Amino acid sequence: MSELAIETQSLHKHFGTLHAVDGLDMHVPCGSIYGFIGRNGAGKTTTIRMFAGLARSTSGQVRVLNLDPRTDGLRLLERTGFVIGKALLPSMTGHDLVRFNRGFFPRWSDAQVDKYVGVLEIPMNQRFQKLSTGNQTKLCMLLALSQGAELLILDEPTAGLDPFVTDQLLRVLVEDFANEGRTLFLSSHHLSASSAESVGGFRFGQFSKRVIECHFHRFEGTKSVRPSGYHTNFVIEALDRAA
Length: 243
Hints:
Layout: E1 4-15, E2 18-29, E3 33-38, H1 44-51, E4 59-64, H2 73-79, E5 80-84, H3 94-102, H4 110-120, H5 133-145, E6 151-155, H6 163-177, E7 183-188, E8 198-203, E9 206-213, E10 218-220, E11 223-225, H7 236-242
Parallel strand pairs: 3-7, 3-8, 5-6, 6-7
Antiparallel strand pairs: 1-2, 1-4, 8-9, 10-11
């Protein structure tokens, strides 16, 4: 069994003359929290779409849970939770979406649904299109977390959220998901919003070869703290500038 949750080798994705992803070599260990950091337009979402089999690479190779997304898409989706945008059926309520998704995932847990409805305070009777941005994001997270996935891949999970909701989501992801030994991969262009042990910097199609392994502190006022089981970062900024 591979010790890597995600591995790419010389991965390229071109749109005409635009090199959205240009020679990406990535190694994400199983059981890690991996932050994928880069500016808007740097190619993060395109990369994640290749992980999900929603886009085909121009050249190079990608393996997710030792599966090829181009040929093993169904097996991959049974084991991986993806949150790429918020493309849910807008007229459905939270309860409707739970019933709709339940049948697609053999490891689905209604107990997890009940837990995160309470923890994240999601109004499940409202239609998705009527929810606030924060509650839409939390509902997407609930659906992904309830799949029983080994790997969770989140594209800009904290975009547009206020600091309280951001902190609430990151605590759930790290303490309830990653601390169980599962792999968490999240992208962000907000340097202060990512919670990670391993960090890769991404800038305009080019992936920084510098990858750092450490636990990060966060600031509460002027005091630097590191709560047990919770990691955020301010060191990433130097990595992103050097990318």
